[in-house]
Amino acid sequence: MIEPNLATMLVYLLTDLDVPREVLRESLARAVAATFNRMSIDSDTSTSDTVVALSSRAVPCPDHAAFDAALERVCGDICEDIVRNGEGVHHVIKVTVSGASDLGLATGVGKAIVNSPLFQCAVCGNDPNVGRLVMAVGKQVGATRPGLDLGRMRLTMGGHLLFSDGVFRLDPDVERHLVAHLSAAEMYTSTPPADGVTFVPPHRFPPHERAVEIGVELGLGAIGCTILGADRSHEYISENADYRS
Which domains does the chain have, with CATH numbers? Predict the structure, then answer.
């Protein structure tokens, strides 16, 4: 249940730099907007979403712009760690949306992709199901921006062109590269459970920091963002089906 806006997430950031309360509050709001508010494991929320920044003000801060950049970088790194350590996550999905007319469109498209159950399952199976990717974009735009022209949209995965000018750009060689990209980003594979029911991740810590890299160029403007998400696995289902509070 990680979707900021009352997500199950508690984050505490500590610094000794002398950053006044109001300045720190504004810096944190900007950093959160660009990082924590742009990730989603499953789109569901809970009741304890908190990000707190505290300063002892013990050390002079000569460059607030550098502090802001460092704060956003730290928040971004924490976000990746949260997603990578999510329940039953096999793949981290990183969607870079560009060419949007506004931030709401860019964010909505990115989250529609990472929160699509069908696309999440395809990624878990290392299946480059481009139709599901296009579906996720079209579903979001159709619901929120009916009539919007996506004729200039370009989609990539792992740097390989999948879709442009309204046409799929696939051939056997491209599909082999896509499968290789998905497989390289996979942190582990599922193994049949001993009890025939409960899938358990084979390790406690993510073995690498690779991600499934998806690019969406909408061709509508100059706004963009990056959204983090994850696939949907047997282990995710096992953990949440058996969960007891």
Answer: 1-84 (3.30.2330.10), 90-245 (3.10.20.340)
Secondary structure of the chain as H, E, C letters: CCCCCCCCCEEEEEEEECCCHHHHHHHHHHHHHHCHHHECCCCCCCCCCEEEEEEEEEECCCCHHHHHHHHHHHHHHHHHHHHHCCCCCCCEEEEEEEEECCHHHHHHHHHHHHCCHHHHHHHHCCCCCHHHHHHHHHHHHHHHCCCCCCCCCEEEECCEEEEECCEECCCHHHHHHHHHHHHHHCCCCCCCCCCCCCCCCCCCCCCCCCCEEEEEECCCCCEEEEEEEECCCHHHHHHHHCCCC
In this predicted model, what pLDDT tens digit does every residue of 130-183 receive, in sequence order?
999 999 999 999 999 999 999 999 999 999 999 999 999 999 999 999 999 999
189 is catalytic: no
